[in-house]
Amino acid sequence: xxxxxxxxxxxxxxxxxxxxxxxxxxxxxxxxxxxxxxxxxxxxxxxxxxxxxxxxxxxxxxxxxxxxxxxxxxxxxxxxxxxxxxxxxxxxxxxxxxxxxxxxxxxxxxxxxxxxxxxxxxxxxxxxxxxxxxxxxxxxxxxxxxxxxxxxxxxxxxxxxxxxxxxxxxxxxxxxxxxxxxxxxxxxxxxxxxxxxxxxxxxxxxxxxxxxxxxxxxxxxxxxxxxxxxxxxxxxxxxxxxxxxxxxxxxxxxxxxxxxxxxxxxxxxxxxxxxxxxxxxxxxxxxxxxxxxxxxxxxxxxxxxxxxxxxxxxxxxxxxxxxxxxxxxxxxxxxxxxxxxxxxxxxxxxxxxxxxxxxxxxxxxxxxxxxxxxxxxxxxxxxxxxxxxxxxxxxxxxxxxxxxxxxxxxxxxxxxxxxxxxxxxxxxxxxxxxxxxxxxxxxxxxxxxxxxxxxxxxxxxxxxxxxxxxxxxxxxxxxxxxxxxxxxxxxxxxxxxxxxxxxxxxxxxxxxxxxxxxxxxxxxxxxxxxxxxxxxxxxxxxxxxxxxxxxxxxxxxx
Length: 558
Description:
The chain is mainly beta and 558 residues long. 8% of the residues lie in helices and 42% in strands.
């Protein structure tokens, strides 16, 4: 509130002065990278008088043409204030004032000089965020200003170079005899904000955001019920809602963000974010609503029935967007103190899912999150998806085809654990392509489980991936950096050897991390049937303990 009244007072005083004609300069700058002009359309414009300056660009200042969001900066040389103003459309404007940054700027003087556009310029240097900035300014024109907020009080800055490879240089200086003074002043109708709120609003205007979940509880609890928009299944351990994706541009980048806190569960758990394809006769939603045994059964000869894990002519498995793992009790158990340990308040996961562009573009989808747990408090999550403009994306012309997903997200609803790798056949899936697929790749996620000394969670096991009986890749999915995430694990067990349970290396995951997909090159695929086989030497059972492997695969190609 104090910021609002301060800016309102300052603007009222500025506009209390008669709007007269004044003498000014117009300086046009071009941006260069490694000696090449970045874009003629990105020219920076500086309009400056004895008292005020406007910093904008050609697009925003063009007559009768407005590009939103339209961001400009105003400088008051009399009281050393910097105003930042943005309009998001032709009526919603926001403004903030910074009275400190111009005063705090410090420069190292040099003896170097050179002539720019006929004016003698002096060089100063400074360092900002480990970047070396060189400014060339002149005092011959008796005007001040600069192409950025840096160096506004030096004189008239005609060139700025960052790290020797990026340059803003003046190309033209024009005198204006009669300029309306109000053009160099902020808009008094703009809504005042503090600097942090203003910068946050500008930042979030650069991308589209789709909220998915906000502080939703995932727990094994009969009281954890569905509501009008969030559907809960498997005794509350799976949450689902329907969202609509906008029409995506060709090169858009798509990111998934998830924040997790323990709401009572102390253990590291498997988590998965997924969408439910509904392009065929049957979908995983049937299993969620009517019970897991209505889903297609996969058998590989080991005597068990695995529900809904492979594609058939009438069914597509879940599309896994992200595989993540909760840490040991972050947030809820932070009261368990250790010397020199300051626990994180939450686990944060962020992943680029742009390769799944074709499954999301202009689609209304069921999107869900699973965390396996048998705790009444369970876990609390918030999740959203952001869409960002980009000039290039390697997946813009690709098609994504879900083939298999053995993660038993209905674990608490009776879905069989993925123990199918205890026989040599492992997982074998035949899929049919209606059209040829060029530059095909398998988006493959694999994590091993079995949390005792001889369980596959702690034993490196090779994964062999074959296509049409030909081996395409053999590798060991393994993580050795788990100790890096110790501060998210307040109740991880501590052992006599000085290690915590969360320190130990694991089969491609750590408590508090995302497991990244592996892209496996498959080459060009002809139309017709193809068979993918996954083989893993799964460990033997010990008493009531068993190992399992959660693997998911999506074919991506042009």
